[in-house]
Design brief:
Elements: E1 5-9, H1 13-25, E2 29-34, E3 46-50, H2 51-59, E4 70-79, E5 88-101, H3 102-112, E6 118-121, E7 125-131, E8 134-139, E9 144-147, E10 149-152, H4 159-164, E11 171-182, E12 194-200, E13 203-211, E14 217-225, H5 250-263, H6 266-273, E15 280-287, E16 294-295, E17 298-300, H7 315-332, H8 336-367, H9 377-387
Parallel strand pairs: 1-2, 1-10, 2-6, 4-12, 10-17
Antiparallel strand pairs: 3-5, 4-5, 7-8, 8-9, 11-14, 11-15, 12-13, 13-14, 16-17
The structure holds flavin-adenine dinucleotide.
Flavin-adenine dinucleotide binds at residues 9-15, 33-36, 40, 47-49, 124-125, 153-155, 159, 177, 179, 222, 283, 302-304, 310, 313-317, 319.
C-alpha cells in the first residue's frame, strides 16, 4: 500500500520514528506537528538501551552505531552500611546496556527524517475531528488540515489518544522520579562501567554515566520514592497536568535532600547533593494502557500508546519498535484498514505486557521494598526473579525482542 496524506502529532523520539516509518511505507505527504519551538536537543537526560534491542533497531535502520554512547556491563545494588564509603553491595546482575544522552538519540532520529517530510516546530494541535475516511486537525494558529491518517506521537498526555479514547488517561503510580545530571564523573567506581542502584526503605536511586554530548561524560541519576503524605510534599498528581516536570517545590526538594543525607552511603550522598539545582527536576510516574493502538484513521505510538514505569528501561526501545511494526504493516497491507489492524495486532499485547512487568517492578523496588539490610546475593536473585515471574531471560526487562522471545 502506498500514497496518502499522513500527520504525525509530536516530533520527539516516537514522532521522528513514525515519520520515518511512514516515509518508508510510501506515504505521499507527511507532516509532523511539534509543539516545541526550537530543537528538542536539551530535553531529558540519560536513556539506557539494551545491547540486543539496540542491535535489532540498528539492523532495522532506525539507529546507528555512530551515536555517542557509554557502555554499561553490570548493575550493582548497594545499601548504606555505617560509614562505608560506597555502602554494602546487596546484589549485582549483568546489565548489557548502552547509555545515551537523550539529545543525541533525538538528533539522530531527527536527522533520519527524510527532507520531504514537513516537520513544523512550534505547531500545536488543539483539536481532532475524525470522519469516516480521514481526520481533520485543528491547529493553534486557527488553521485546519485534513489527513488520511493521523499518528499520535504526542506523549502521555496525547490529544490524539483523548480523541480515540476519552475515558482513558495515564494514572499516577503514587510516587515520583527525582532526576538530575552531575558533571562529577572523575572518580566513579569501576571507571563508570557499572550502573548503580542505591537502595533505601521506600525506594532506590539508579545512577550511571552518559555521554554529555560534547565529548565528555555526566552522571545521570533517577531517585524513585513516595513523598510523605503531608501538604506540599505530595501534591495531587492524579491529573497528569497538575505538576509538569520541572516544578519542584522548595519543601519537596528539602525533603528529598534530607532523605539522601539520612539514607545514602556517603559517596553517593555527595554525588546527589552536589548536583547543580538547575539540572534537577521531578517526573511523576504514570501507568497507561489503551484498549487498542488504533481507532478509525488514527494510530498511537510511543508514550501516547502506553507508558510503562521507567524501571523497565525500555520506553524509547518500545517507541522505536512501534515504528518498525508500523513500517512492516505499511509494507504488507493492501489498504488503511489492514495496515491499522496489523499494527495493533503486532504492538498492543507488547505494550500491555510491558506495563504489567513495570508495575511489578515498581511494587518491589519502590512501593513495598524488602529489608535491604538483610539481603545478600541469593536473596537478591530470588527477589529479582519474583518480579520477572520466575524467568530472567524472557522477562522483557530492557524491552521485548523484535523476534518475540
Ligand atoms: C524517569 C524516566 C526515565 C526513563 N528512562 C528510560 C530509559 O532508560 N530507556 C528508555 O528506553 N526509555 C526511558 N524512558 C522513556 C522514554 O523517555 C520515552 O518512553 C520515549 O522517549 C518515547 O517518548 P515519546 O516520543 O513517545 O514521547 P515524548 O518524548 O513525551 O514526546 C511527545 C512530543 O509531543 C509533543 N506534543 C505533545 N502534545 C502536542 C500537541 N498537542 N501538538 C503538537 N505537539 C505535541 C511534545 O512537545 C513532545 O515533543 C524514561 C522515562 C522516564 C519518565
Amino acid at each position: 500500500m502506498s500514497g496518502g496524506t499522513v500527520a504525525v502529532v509530536g516530533g520527539s523520539i516516537a514522532g521522528c520514528a513514525a515519520a520515518l516509518a511512514a516515509a518508508r511505507g510510501g506515504a505521499d505527504r507527511i507532516t509532523v506537528f511539534e509543539r516545541a519551538q526550537a530543537g528538542l536537543r536539551d530535553r531529558g537526560v540519560g536513556i539506557g538501551l539494551h545491547n540486543d534491542r539496540f542491535a535489532e533497531l540498528r539492523d532495522a535502520g532506525y539507529l546507528t552505531s555512530e551515536m555517542p554512547w557509554a557502555p554499561l556491563n553490570r548493575r550493582v545494588w548497594s545499601v548504606r552500611d555505617g560509614d562505608a564509603r560506597h555502602g554494602r553491595p546487596v546484589g549485582e546482575q549483568p546489565f548489557p546496556f548502552r547509555a545515551y544522552n537523550w539529545g543525541s538519540l533525538w538528533s539522530e532520529l531527527r536527522h533520519r527524517v527524510p527532507d520531504g517530510v514537513d516537520y513544523r516546530s512550534g505547531s500545536v494541535v488543539t483539536g481532532v475531528e475524525p470522519d469516516a475516511d480521514g481526520v481533520t486537525l485543528r491547529l493553534g494558529d486557527g488553521h485546519r488540515e485534513r489527513f488520511d491518517l493521523v499518528i499520535g506521537a504526542d506523549g502521555y498526555r496525547s490529544v490524539i489518544r483523548e480523541a480515540m479514547y476519552p475515558d482513558t488517561a495515564a494514572s499516577y503510580a503514587g510516587y515520583i522520579g527525582w532526576r538530575g545530571t552531575s558533571p562529577e564523573v572523575a572518580d566513579l567506581p569501576s571507571d563508570g562501567l557499572d550502573a548503580h542502584n542505591i537502595v533505601f526503605p521506600g525506594g532506590h536511586c539508579m545512577a550511571y554515566r552518559i555521554p554529555d554530548g560534547v565529548g565528555g561524560h555526566r552522571l545521570n541519576w533517577i531517585l524513585y520514592t513516595t513523598p510523605a503524605r503531608e501538604d506540599g510534599l505530595h501534591p495531587d498528581l492524579r491529573t497528569p497536568t497538575s505538576l509538569p516536570p520541572g516544578r519542584l517545590t522548595a519543601r519537596l526538594t528539602t525533603w528529598l535532600r534530607e532523605l539522601v543525607a539520612d539514607t545514602f552511603p556517603p559517596y553517593w550522598a555527595g554525588k546527589l547533593l552536589g548536583t547543580p539545582a538547575e539540572t534537577t527536576f521531578i517526573q511523576p510516574i504514570y501507568d497507561l494502557e489503551v484498549p487498542r493502538y488504533t481507532a478509525g484513521r488514527m494510530a498511537l505510538i510511543g508514550d501516547a500508546a502506553s507508558v510503562a514505569r521507567p524501571h523497565l528501561g525500555a520506553g524509547s526501545v518500545k517507541a522505536l519498535q512501534d515504528a518498525t511494526a508500523l513500517q512492516s504493516a505499511w509494507e504488507s497491507a493492501g489498504d488503511w484498514g489492514q495496515l491499522l489492524e496489523a499494527y495493533d495486532t503486532a504492538r498492543g499485547p507488547i505494550g500491555s505486557a510491558m506495563v504489567a512487568l513495570a508495575r511489578r517492578m515498581g511494587d518491589a523496588q519502590v512501593e513495598n521494598t524488602p529489608d535491604w539490610s538483610a539481603m545478600g546475593q541469593p536473596e537478591f536473585d530470588g527477589w529479582w526473579q519474583a518480579q520477572n515471574n520466575g524467568s530472567d531471560r524472557r522477562s522483557g526487562f530492557g524491552g521485548h525482542s523484535l523476534k518475540r522471545d
